[in-house]
Amino acid sequence: MSSFTPTTPRPAPANTVGFVGWARDNLFATKFDTALTVLAVTIILYVMKAVFGWAIIDASFSGTERTACLKEVQGACWPFIEAKFGQFIYGRYPDAERWRVDLVFAAGLIGLVPMLMPSVGHKRANMIFLLGFYPVFAFIMLTGGVLGLAAVDTTDWGGLLVTLVVAVTGIVASLPLGILLALGRRSDLPIVRALCIGFIEIFRGVPLITVLFMASVMLPLFLPDGVNFDKLVRCLIGVALFSSAYMAEVVRGGLQAMPKGQYEAAAALGLSYWKTTRLIILPQALKLVIPGIVNTFIGLFKDTTLVLIVGLFDLLGIVQLHFTDASWATPETHITGYVFAGAVFWLFCFAMSRYSIFMENHLSTDRNA
Amino acid sequence: MSDPVIRINKMNKWFGNFHVLRDIDLNVASGEKIVICGPSGSGKSTLIRCINRLEAHQEGDIEVEGVTLDGSLKNLEDIRSNVGMVFQQFNLFPHMTVLENCTLSPIWVQQKSKAEAETLARELLERVRIPDQADKYPGQLSGGQQQRVAIARALCMNPRIMLFDEPTSALDPEMIKEVLDVMVELAEEGMTMLCVTHEMGFARQVADRVIFMDEGEIVEENAPEAFFSNPENERTKLFLSQVL
Question: Quick check: is A85 in a domain?
Answer without folding.
Answer: no
